Every structure is written in C-alpha cells, then in structure tokens.
Automatic annotation (TrEMBL):
The keyword Ligase does not apply. GO terms for molecular function: DNA-binding transcription factor activity; transcription cis-regulatory region binding. The keyword Lyase does not apply. Residues 6-63 form the HTH lysR-type domain. Keywords: DNA-binding, Transcription, Transcription regulation. Belongs to the LysR transcriptional regulatory family. This is LysR family transcriptional regulator.
Amino acid sequence: MAHRVPDLGALELLLAVARHGSLGRAARELGISQPAASGRLRSMETLLGVALVDRSPTGSRLTPAGVLVTDWARRVVEAAEEFDAGAQALRTHRDSRLRIAASMTIAEYLLPGWLVALRSRCPGTAVSLFAGNSAAVAERLGAGEADLGFVEGLRIPAGLDGVTVAEDRLLVVAAPGHPWARRRTPVPPAELAATPLVLREPGSGTRQVLDAALAGHGGLSAPLLELASTTAVKASAVSGAGPAVLSELAVTEELAARRLVAVRVADIALRRSLRAVWRRSQKPAGAARELLSLTTTARATVTTP
C-alpha cells in the first residue's frame, strides 16, 4: 500500500501559508519562488486527494481540510525539529571527546606538543590516550575503541588508512662503558644480529623495523631483555645491561649528557615512518580531524643527516 505522506518541505510550506495568509509571503520566508511554492502545494493536494488552500486575489485561506492537515503538519514538523536537535547533540558529544591510541614513542615524544596545539583549537575537547605498541593500536582502532591512532613501522596495518606525519631514525645505543661505545669501526649487521640486545616486544614498530633490517643477516638473536616500554628499554641501556635499539627521539637528552653513546652500524638503514591511522570505514571527524590537520601541517622531521 502506497503511503500518502508529504515531504517535510511541503509541510513547512503549509504552515507558513497558515501563518501569513499568503502563498507569496510563505514562499519568501522559505526562500523559494512563488511558482515553486504553488507547484509544491498542488503536488501535496494531489497526493492527499483534498484541497488545502483557497486562493484568491486577496490572499490564501485554508480549507477545513487544510486546517486539519495543518494541525497534523505542525506536530510532524515539531517532531522533526526535536529529532534534528537530538542528532546535533549527539554530534556535539562525539566531537567534544577524542579517543587516541598511540605507539609508545609517539605518545611520549610527539603527542604532548600536538595536544597542546589542539587545546587552543578545540578547548572543550576531552582527550583520552591509550599508549601501547603499534599492533595494539591497530587492534583498538579495529574494535572501534579509538577515533585516531598513531603507529610506527614499515607499513600501514591491515584494514586501516593513514598518512605519514613524521620520519624517524632508530639508533643502536650503549652505555659509555660498553665495548661498542669505544669502537672506532661500525658494527657489521651480522654482529648486531648475533648480539643479544635490550629490545621492545614483538608487535612494536621498533622491533618490526629491526627484524626486517636484519632478516638477511641471520635474523635477531634471542633478546637479552624484552621490555614493553621505551622508557624501560632506555633505563636498562643506561644502567649498562646491554646495547639497545631506540628511536632517536627517545635518546636525545641521554646522548647529549653522554649517559648513552650512539653506535655506528654498517650497511643497514634503520629508518621508519610515523603515521596517523584510522579505520577505512570511518574518516577522522571533529576533534580527530583537527588533530590530524595539526600533525600533517607540522609534518615534523625528526631525522638527522
């Protein structure tokens, strides 16, 4: 059975005619031409099968059926306005919170500055941050538990879209007392691969890049220590536990203070892209879009020659 329900615009026109007693003034209020308003009114009368308005040179007057339909129309329009207000409230609530999932290096060394800048653009936004490895960030996004993510590594995780926001270099570092810290020649890749290191856990972007770089040199040996945070890896290296591989972002102060020494490695490039990522089906919106704009505009370059 066909439904004979006029569209919302036609109902709003009928209410305007009732208010003004004139089709011309109703058309001006709604920002349409009088011929368009007349045609819309005739279409509604045809749809309903009754005359709604008596037209005369002195104005437009509702018929008895028109009075009844206008009363129904008012309730429909008010309900539509309530619906729109509710939807706007939902959008406002969504845009006033931002759930971020970020890999450790980005969370510790890049996000704080970005979030300070975001606060000036979106002062009412409540931000929550999950910090984990790149694999955990991808899982959060896939489960709908984050609006925007930041990962390190060789590629964008499956099911996500993304954009590069910075370039990073990984360094092999050791405490000043370690033999590598006093070495005058670069460490060969095979020696690096065979040496137990203090490393991040599998799933981290650092580990992914290192595994790929040493795959052709025998692969990584079993770690000396396997730790779940950049801070823990760095502290272990400073204490002299053994050499470690860390982002250059994470060891700037330690290198300057000579608490750690950068170890030269021959013939491998330990570089990676730092990326903002999101679900393919859900492009960043609201505060997430603003944060993405900040990161891509800054396009921080964190490598050194």
